[in-house]
Amino acid sequence: MEERTPVIAFRNADILNGENCVIYGLDMEVLPGDFMYIVGKVGTGKTSIIRTMIAENPLLTGEGTVCGYDLRRIKADEIPYLRRRLGVVFQDFQLLMDRNVEDNLAFVLKATGWKEGAGFDRRIGDVLEAVGMSHKAHKMPHQLSGGEQQRIAIARSLLNSPEVIIADEPTGNLDPETADGIMQLLRSINGEKGTAVVMVTHNMNICKKYRGRLMVCKDEACTEWTDDEVIDLSVGELDIDI
Residues 65, 102: one domain? Predict the structure, then answer.
């Protein structure tokens, strides 16, 4: 069997939040096609891992690579190119409220070096179709529901055909039914396109319903748990909603 190169890899990496180390000795590999959850109590380093992946937090100890970039040696002018190979989805959507859906996506394409033309317009149409939002292209963000805004945020993350989608609590502000739809969308993208997904969540119901690899942040460490440990996980252990 052909060996797959990880899209994200950490070896004995210390994860910082500001000047404080929140996770010691992180070992993690995300392979193409993986769907990985990162869970844990508030303040245990989940979002700090995400920020390290996108080179927002520095990596000073250990090894880390994301989409071929060495996080220990990455230069400031290389960071935008790293981020173009990632799709990042936030809990609070982070859409530009003064422009419509189509213009939100156009803004990102222009910022990442696309030139306007047939290919430019086709790419916007393709990602809107992928998330079932083609009919909302001319709507303003305030005219959309929370679930629709998150679908647009996911469409935005797909614009540059990322190797991995990094999602920080993407269902955190959504009701259960809407969150379920977002999970089905992410799993569809993962399954059909083979795009790896790394998702921070507090919702263990999601982890149990949509099974994937599970990394647990606890006691200044982040380790992978087995399926049996996930099934047995109780709400009291991690103070996570189930």
Answer: no
Retrieve residue 100's tokens: 């419509």
Structural domain total, the chain: 2
What pTM did the predictor assign?
0.88
Question: Is 53 within a domain?
Answer: yes
Is residue 119 domain-shared with residue 207, that is, in the same domain? no
Q: Which amino acid is at 32?
A: P
Q: With respect to residue 48, please indicate whether it lies within any of the assigned structural domains.
A: yes
Q: 235 and 204, same structural domain?
A: yes
How far apart, in whole angstroms, are the C-alpha atoms of residue 20 and residue 75? 22
Domain that holds residue 187: 1-85+163-242
Strands, E, within the chain: which ranges?
Answer: 8-17, 20-30, 35-40, 63-66, 69-70, 86-90, 164-168, 196-200, 213-218, 221-225
157-188 pLDDT, tens digit each: 999 999 999 999 998 888 889 999 999 999 99
Separation of alpha carbons 104 and 133, rounded Å:
13
